[in-house]
Amino acid sequence: MTPSRSVRTALQATGWLVAAAWALSFPLFSSLEPHRLWGWCAAAGYLCAAALAVRRPRAAVTAALLGAVAVPLLWLVLTGRGQSEVMVVERSGRLLLETGRMYVDRPAAVDEYTPYLPGMAALGIPHTVLGRLGDARIWCAAVLFGGMWAGRRLLGGARSPLLPVLVASPVVALPLAVSGVDLPLAGLCCLALAAAAAGRPVLAGAALAGACALKWTALPAVAVAVALLAACRGGRAAVRCAAVAVLGTAALVLPSALLQPAETVRQVFAFPTGRAEVPTPASSPLPGHLLAELGTWGWWLTVALLAVGGLAVALSLAVRPPRTLVAAADRLAIGLTLAFLLAPAGRFGYLALPVLLVVWARSVTAPGFSRIVAGSAGQYVRSGAEAKSANA
Question: Mind telling me which residue stretches traverse the membrane in this protein (predicted)?
């Protein structure tokens, strides 16, 4: 074994051990049963992966996937257990299918709130039709993997060993098993950025419309994809993407919003930002939440900081637009991280989305080439100083 390979193997084994330690913190400190179960299963998988990493790195990834994803997801689906978000999505799908309205009128308890848009309710419909085989987590995962796979195909990237490691990591494995509601948004953002990088404005706009119909936190992805297209394919392509995204989002969201305008405002906007009658459970001690806890002035200060952060990212897109997939993913990750950190209410788990975007973009970019475009004509160039400059 060469010295470089020995170092790489040691790093991989150490990474799996760190993941195992992190997973073990859930059965030791969490009061949520699905998280505790995931922690035991994942820790076993990660420890096996660490033991196998020295001589069989591929088998190590397989062990991690089995322990952190397959076993806990299958067990939780078959036993009907998971975070409350799963039940909320499935209930909204049932209401949408049976009544055409996805929100509970005048919700009195936290579990009666649905802080999502109609696209998320659509992912809950299979449960009404198929029972446990239609568990919302399965369909959320399908959108995630479908978006990542389609994005890689668009760019012609080779299979990367980094992607299975990403899926097996706690960043993706935990939400995949216990909740899954943020994963389809990530998959559609990956597809939208890949389509923009490949010069496919209509497809990019359609993916963005799907993402924005899930949660309004997908809106920053529209600005990044449009900026990427404007820099690489010209203004007409950017306008086409923006038009498809806006019109598609309106077509998917407006019918539900017009049927229940008051509930849309209360549950989709007021509840996630801590302004509803019932406090949101998204209360991790992030900077924005800590400020909002100081009172009304603190809440307005977080809103002002959010606006400043959004303006800063928008200015960066105008002054120095991204010209590669990696640069676009990095810029979107920065914007989302600022939004999650400064929001009046949030969870540490939300930060998995920007991490996933950054890692996925690098996993699908071929090591020898970097897609950059000058003017309106696309071309591939060898990665080097020029590609690094374009990626900045």
Answer: 35-54, 61-78, 167-196, 202-230, 237-259, 297-320, 332-361
Residues 147 and 72 in one domain: no
Burial readout 35-56 (b: 16 or more C-beta within 10 A, e: otherwise): bebbbbbbbbbbbbbbbbbeee
Do 56 and 123 sit in the same domain of this protein?
no
User: How far apart are the C-alpha atoms of 295 and 96, rounded to whole Å?
Assistant: 36
Same domain flag for 160 and 293: yes
Category of 296 on φ-ψ map: left (φ > 0), alpha (ψ -120 to 50) or beta: alpha
Q: Count how many Cα atoms sit within 13 Å of the Cα of residue 383 in the half-sphere of its side chain.
A: 12
pTM to 2 decimal places: 0.88
Non-local (6+) Cβ contacts of 6 within 8 A are none
Q: Which of 66, 81, 96 is the last residue of a domain?
A: 81
**For residue 385, how far is the Cα from the chain centroid?**
31
pLDDT tens, position by position, 75-107: 999 998 988 899 999 999 999 999 999 999 999
Last residue of one domain, picked from the residues 39, 65, 81: 81
Domain count, the chain: 2
Q: What is the pLDDT of residue 384?
A: 36
Residues 240 and 328 in one domain: yes
Per the CB < 8 A criterion, the answer to whether 12 and 20 are in contact is: no
Query: In which domain, by residue range, is 74 found?
Result: 1-81
- Residue closest to 275 by CA, chosen among 256, 302, 253, 255: 302
Are 289 and 332 members of one domain? yes
